[in-house]
Amino acid sequence: MADMKAYAKKVLAGIEAKDPDQKEFQNTAKEILQSIIPVLEAHPEYKEEKLLERFFEPERVVMFRVPWVDDKGELQVNRGFRVQMNSAIGPYKGGLRFHPSVNLSILKFLATEQILKNALSGLPIGGGKGGSDFDPKGKSDNEVMRFCQSFMTELYRHIGADIDVPAGDIGVGGREIGYLYGQYKRITGLYEGVLTGKGLTFGGSLARTEATGYGLLYFTSNVLRDAGIDIKDKTVVVSGAGNVAIYAIEKAQQMGAKVVTCSDSSGYVYDPDGIDLALVKDIKEVRRARIKEYVKKHKKAEYHEGCKGVWNVPCDIALPCATQNELDLDAAKELVKNGVKVVCEGANMPSTLDAIAYFQKHKVKFGPAKAANAGGVSVSALEMSQNSERLSWTFEEVDNYLKRIMDDIYKKTTAACEEYGAKGDLLAGANMAGFVKVANAMHAQGWV
Ligand code: NDP
Known about the structure:
Layout: H1 2-18, H2 23-35, H3 37-42, H4 44-48, H5 51-55, E1 60-69, E2 75-86, E3 92-98, H6 104-120, E4 126-132, H7 141-155, E5 164-167, H8 174-188, H9 208-226, E6 235-239, H10 243-254, E7 258-259, E8 261-263, E9 267-270, H11 277-286, H12 294-297, E10 302-305, E11 317-320, H13 329-337, E12 342-344, H14 353-361, E13 365-367, H15 369-372, H16 375-389, H17 395-419, H18 426-444
Parallel strand pairs: 3-4, 3-5, 6-7, 6-11, 11-12, 12-13
Antiparallel strand pairs: 1-2, 2-4, 8-9, 9-10
Helix pairs in contact: 1-2, 2-6, 6-18, 7-8, 9-10, 9-16, 9-17, 10-11, 13-14, 16-17, 17-18
Bound molecules: NADPH dihydro-nicotinamide-adenine-dinucleotide phosphate.
């Protein structure tokens, strides 16, 4: 054990020395390395083959200039990225994020998470992530289109239906995917499944929009069942008001839970009567406005500036669905004090490492992002399948498949917990189950 702990420690020190400024990437490496020691013990060949060193080094990173012209005729320049992290089990797959905070550290963290998540899905997809520091907020449709066209004018040469298949993420929804796809097709002349999350009239899959949020609830149902909790009438706190949050709220409500919050990066809404989802969709999906507008219509609801306060609302189940590091130790303490029983992550790494440790110490059931939010990428892979066979499946077919995948991810995760002596630690289980699959594929493919 000591030998493998030392190996993991050495790998982490190497990452910290090589990229001292990449804190998010270091955090994800630390989280994974801490939990896979039993797997390393069972596979001494991984150390001999420097498998960890290879795992944490991207196969390729592309960084490029994105010039575009705004509505005033002024030239703007953003930075674009694609991190092709690991293709051991399939073409690189992972979203594009457009947000001012985007940098290489965040994308390497997300791409690394994506490797394990995609492995857990059971589908043949590798790990990647990309994006830009471009902020679509407040931009006109024409500006977003010109940006997307410029972004794709470089990206197209690095991707392809069997090479790398990007999708959406924060700031990249159906509108952006449409513009990106149009430009890819225009440059290459290919009508192929090179992006997922496409519109339904040009190769998109039914249930892709709902997939991450619905999948989160399918996973959470497994956690609740094993904890002997019925979701009906339970109070749920959700953060975010984007794609993941909206469809998590929708499925939670369909299952009979009472969701009392949602938020955006300005503040959060608390509605004691339960969130009016049609209104949230209208504000965020149709009008692209701020969530504070919610209280204009619902007089009993409250709007609070700042998003952290959402974790002070008492609940049985908490579903962070906004962004990384949104739930810190203070928030975890507040949730535990107010009696939270289950926390499942819809966003990528929303809980800080000390918040997770606090949940686990206080016996709160914790569903980690790479398992709990794998529904989005899973249905993206189903979209790739439909594009390859040039067929479209019904909503029910895709939704049933999604449910089976999420149930299976939960089973694989808990099985790994049992096998490697980490009972109840779903984070360790997800890391180990995902890692073994990728590591074995890397081992079989030689030193590449
Ligand atoms: P959206 O852009 O649709 O929504 C993001 C939401 O989070 C918005 O409400 C946004 O508010 C809020 N938000 C963004 N940045 C911050 C911040 N710094 N602080 C507080 N709130 C913030 O993105 P998605 O719903 O697609 O993604 C949400 C999370 O889920 C991300 O972590 C993403 O990586 C993850 N995810 C998404 C998948 C998908 O299929 N879409 C799949 C798997 C994971 P505002 O409107 O003010 O910006």
